[in-house]
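Hi F.,

I've been meaning to write this up properly since the lab meeting, where we talked about keeping a consistent format for the predictions we share between groups. The idea is simple: the sequence comes first, exactly as it goes in, then the structure tokens exactly as they come out, then a line or two of notes. No screenshots and no reformatting. I'm using this chain as the first example so we have something concrete to point to.
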Amino acid sequence: MVRHDWIVMPRDYYEVLGVARSATADQIKAAYHKLAKKHHPDRNPGDKEAAAKFKEIQQAYDVIGDADKRKKYDQFGPAFEQMGAGGPGGGGPGSGQGPFHFRWGSGSGPEVEGVDPSVMESLFEQMFGGAGGGGRAAGGRARGGRRGGGFTPPPDVEHAVEIDFLMAARGGTVEILGPQGQRVSARIPSGIEDGQTLRLREQGVAGGDLKLKVRVRPHPQFRREGPDLIVRLPLTLGEAVLGGKVDVPTLDGVITLTVPPGTSSGKRLRLRGQGLPNPGGGKGDLFAEVQIVVPEKIKEESRELIREFMKQNPHDPRSRT
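Output, unedited:
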């Protein structure tokens, strides 16, 4: 039997950080910070794959983030350590002597050894919006800090925003002034309800989220019941008794509705699919709620006609039988 001893070579460090071989030192540093923030174990608790990815990212940056090691790596590849760069104090990947070394323990996060505090503070400010030891950032904004061996994420900021009924129904975009004086654009999904909250990632203070609590102004014609819309439909006595065709307002314009003869006040006439977007798909319905309106002033001749009508059509709406 022939035995093969496979040597697994590490991935290309430029590929790991997602940069070109011609990338500048600043571009490499920016790519490292972005990936380290995304895959950091404090942001992915219990995720072994993220921890392994973070370790690989760190290993790559330990090499190509250092000018001397990068030069040797570009010339000899991963084998540069065996060519004099990885001896005692050489600082190759895994040696723990690069600019950042994370020792994995049983705590909530990695322990950092042999790191320039100012460099580490810059990294943590990029990753968590705060310094390793807490405190305040430039400009007086609060920053996250250490707590129980880990890092305290920046708090969310709540802000109320008022929109009109039609924007809540149709959706749209609003612009507000953020907590740090920045202009923030928020997309309002169609069908949003009064009191719902929208979360805007990293639009708060020190990298935290901004939570928008939506308040919807009442509409003079429409009110909502879940995905359904209710609109009041005034009818004359003649329209209610004889029936007919009347115009009804909807979100998309006016629709002609047929009123059946003998329609009473309080009855709801349904217009299917003319309501609000339904979370389960499709749309709710619009209900025209009938309200019979009688004129305040009636001529005596009309009164006699009504009396005759009542004689010929006896009816007691209060009777339970």
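Notes:
Residues 104 and 110 are 5 Å apart (CA to CA).
The longest helix spans residues 48-64.

If this format works for you, I'll send the rest the same way.

G.
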